Amino acid sequence: MDTEHAKYCLEGTTCLPDNFEPCCDIFAGHTATCAFDLRYEWWGAAKGWYIRIADDAGGGGITIAWCPHCGTPLS
Ligand SMILES: [Zn+2]
Ligand SMILES: [Zn+2]
Question: What spacing in Å lies between the alpha carbon of 24 and ligand 2's midpoint?
C-alpha cells in the first residue's frame, strides 16, 4: 500500500444498515476491509449492497443481491 492510498484508506470504517445482522462471519469480516481487499458496503441512498471499488482504481461499486460466501439473499 502506498502512502498516497493510506491517507484515505477505508480499512476499519464501515457502511452498514442500522440493524445489520451478518449472514455469516466471512461477509461480516469483509465489511471493514480496505477497498483493495474485498469490501462490502451498504449504500443507503441506493438501498443496496455493493462491492466497493477502490477510488484509486476508478471508484464506484458492483451491486450484489446475495452473499457471495453463503448464498443468503441480502436485505
Ligand atoms: Zn486501503
Ligand atoms: Zn453470508
Answer: 4
CB 55 within 8 A of CB 8: yes
The dihedral formed by the CA atoms of 13, 17, 23 and 27, expressed in degrees to the nearest 10: -20
Q: Are 73 and 66 in contact (CB under 8 A)?
A: yes
Output the CA 59–ligand 1 centroid distance in Å: 13
pLDDT tens-digit readout, 26-61: 999 999 999 999 999 999 999 999 999 998 889 999
- What separation in angstroms does the CA of 60 have from each of 25, 33, 43? 25, 16, 11
pTM of the model: 0.91
Residue 2 predicted with pLDDT over 80: no
